[in-house]
From TrEMBL:
Superkingdom of this protein's organism: Bacteria
Keywords annotated in UniProt: Signal
Residue span(s) of domain Outer membrane protein beta-barrel: 15-180
Gene3D superfamilies recorded: 2.40.160.20
Official protein name in the record: Porin family protein
Record's signal peptide: 1-23
InterPro entries, A to Z: Beta-barrel_OMP, OMP/PagP_B-barrel
Keyword field contains Cell membrane: no
Organism of derivation: Steroidobacter flavus
Pfam annotation, one family: OMP_b-brl
Amino acid sequence: MRKVVVLSVLSIAGIGLSFGTHAEEQPGFYVAASVGEATNESGEFKGSDTAFKVGGGYTFNRYFGIEVAYVDAGTQDDTIGPIALENDSSGVIANAVLRLPLGETFALFGKLGYAFYDSETTSRLGNLSERERDSDEDFAYGAGVELAVWGGLRLRAEYEAVDVSAGDFQIVSAGVTYKF
């Protein structure tokens, strides 16, 4: 999955750099959806799973916008010694989005914001299991590339991270946005 996302980023970057000057972009709303890989590392635990995001945003001009997305990070699992661990996590990330247009259809972007999330960790040792639920909020950031392909349709590849106090949480994804 990670190779597919990296190849998507490189393809979008290569195509986007071949275009000319950027036309003035109008303010407006957009919807977004993407799929990728979420990784979660905390102490000895290192797990990953397929993740998806759905959301939307508003662009004030070609350089600045805001975005909110629901993220389902799947179930990351790992085995530490005889203990099997599973972590289900999901939440909402709200970001300010800064864009750097590099031509008529290509842009780099960065995100700064905040994540509000729930996680449920299940520990299993043989027939015994224990479940722990947690809700928290932390600083989030990310970066990516975007390619306008037709009308309001854009392809997007991005990296996002949540500054979780107990470890690292990251998502690498590819998806689409549609601006109204």
